[in-house]
């Protein structure tokens, strides 16, 4: 079966959009206009859940094996991250000073300025990362700030495949249930549950609707109707909540409320409109990113942390929009280089695990 390059292309564009979002909302907090930062959220993480729904099936064994591989790759990455963070602190204390390290971390702003720095490795942080409790990585703060997506992805994939496997004739009922829960949480915000429930209710809706779209194409006559509905929803949002709600969209993303949900409708509609309509026949830079999206997702957390050290000295010396373009280009280039390195390190990690497996395997009688 030929690989659908549209999926890779869409993943690649979504990944590039995430890099721009993290360029705007992390180091960009020092110089990028608030309006631009908000507009960066037009093509956001909901696209990944939709693309996952399109590509998912009802094969439990295949899905669990894929998730296991992803978990191991994730553990290899955070192990590398842990030692990079630890060794940097040891290096800083050995060759510079505690004050130098404090000045270094103050570059990330007061929210991420590290106070407790020691040469003792904080092993509990590594254990928490393995179990998807994303305590901050001091030297690379954007990494753990990005990983909320991964936990929700694991949850969606497990529950999603169970629904597809055991309730294939009732998928629309589950879509209705998720929509109903999302509406209830928003109509009665005092009862909006903490934890992952609110995330899963909305993103499971996206996941299942996308699965129902698999192999289908939106009729041409329906396209203006869908965009009309999106426009009406946005008009209602601004008239009901006021114009200032525009600046609160990111705050309504964690967890997703009706404001953020309406904001995502344009990107989701666009994804489905072009699905099975836009034909991608050749490999490209974007499809390469899409094929290796997880490594780029890991890499952009590191690169988006590193670009802080360009932003701070340059932000007073050039117009903000020129700096934004420059930092984004640098961020993409760094992410590309780091992703290539992470792929090789991941391969090395798997070879070590395979070596250990062979050494500890029970010999056949």
Condensed summary:
The chain has 16 helices and no strands. Helix 1 runs antiparallel to helix 3, helix 9 runs antiparallel to helix 10 and helix 14 crosses helix 16.
Characterise this structure:
The structure is a single chain. It contains 16 helices and no strands. By secondary structure, the protein is mainly alpha-helical. Helix 1 (5-25) packs across helix 13 (285-291) and helix 9 runs antiparallel to helix 10. The mean pLDDT is 94.
From the spread of the alpha carbons, the general shape counts as globular
The count of DSSP E runs of length 2 or more, i.e. the number of strands, is 0
Mean pLDDT: 94
Largest sheet: none
Distance between the termini: 40 Å
User: Which class do the helix and strand fractions yield?
Assistant: mainly alpha
What pattern of helices and strands is seen along the backbone? HHHHHHHHHHHHHHHH
Query: What ranges have pLDDT less than 50 throughout 5 or more consecutive residues?
Result: none
Give me the number of helical elements: 16
How large, in whole angstroms, is the Cα Rg?
22 Å
Tell me the β content. Answer: under 5%
Helix residue percentage: 55-70%
Summarize the topology.
Blueprint: H1 5-25, H2 34-39, H3 46-55, H4 60-95, H5 98-106, H6 123-130, H7 141-146, H8 148-166, H9 171-187, H10 197-212, H11 223-241, H12 258-274, H13 285-291, H14 293-306, H15 308-314, H16 320-360
Helix pairs in contact: 1-3, 1-13, 1-14, 1-16, 3-10, 4-6, 4-8, 8-10, 9-10, 11-12, 14-16
């Amino acid at each position: 079966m030929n690989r659908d390059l549209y999926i890779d292309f869409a993943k690649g564009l979504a990944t590039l959009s995430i890099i721009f979002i993290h360029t705007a909302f992390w180091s960009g907090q020092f110089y990028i206009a608030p309006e631009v930062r908000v507009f960066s959220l037009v093509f956001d993480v909901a696209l990944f859940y939709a693309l996952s729904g399109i590509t998912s099936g009802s094969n439990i064994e295949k899905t669990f094996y894929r998730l296991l591989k992803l978990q191991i790759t994730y553990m290899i990455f955070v192990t590398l991250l842990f030692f990079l963070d630890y060794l940097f602190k040891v290096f800083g204390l050995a060759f510079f000073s505690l004050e130098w390290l404090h000045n270094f971390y103050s570059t990330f702003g007061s929210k991420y300025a590290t106070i407790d720095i020691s040469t003792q490795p904080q092993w509990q942080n590594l254990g928490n990362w393995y179990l998807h409790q994303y305590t901050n990585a001091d030297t690379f703060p954007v990494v753990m700030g990005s990983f909320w997506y991964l936990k929700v992805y694991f949850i969606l994939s497990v529950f999603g495949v169970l629904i597809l496997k055991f309730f294939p004739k009732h998928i629309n009922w589950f879509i209705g249930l998720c929509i109903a829960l999302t509406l209830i949480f928003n109509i009665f915000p005092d009862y909006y549950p903490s934890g992952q429930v609110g995330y899963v209710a909305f993103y499971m809706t996206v996941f299942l609707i996308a699965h129902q779209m698999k192999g289908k194409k939106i009729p041409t006559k329906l396209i203006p109707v869908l965009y009309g509905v999106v426009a009406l929803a946005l008009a209602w949002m601004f008239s009901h909540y006021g114009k200032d709600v525009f600046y609160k969209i990111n705050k309504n993303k964690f967890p997703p409320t009706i404001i953020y949900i309406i904001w995502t409708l344009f990107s989701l509609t666009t994804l489905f409109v072009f699905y099975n309509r836009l034909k991608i026949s050749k490999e490209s830079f974007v499809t390469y990113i899409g094929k290796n999206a997880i490594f780029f997702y890991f890499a952009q957390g590191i690169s988006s942390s590193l670009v802080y050290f360009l932003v701070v000295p340059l932000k007073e010396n050039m117009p903000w929009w020129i700096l934004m373009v420059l930092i984004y280009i640098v961020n993409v280039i760094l992410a590309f280089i780091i992703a290539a390195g992470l792929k090789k390190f991941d391969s090395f990690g798997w070879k070590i695990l395979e070596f250990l497996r062979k050494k500890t395997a029970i010999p056949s009688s």
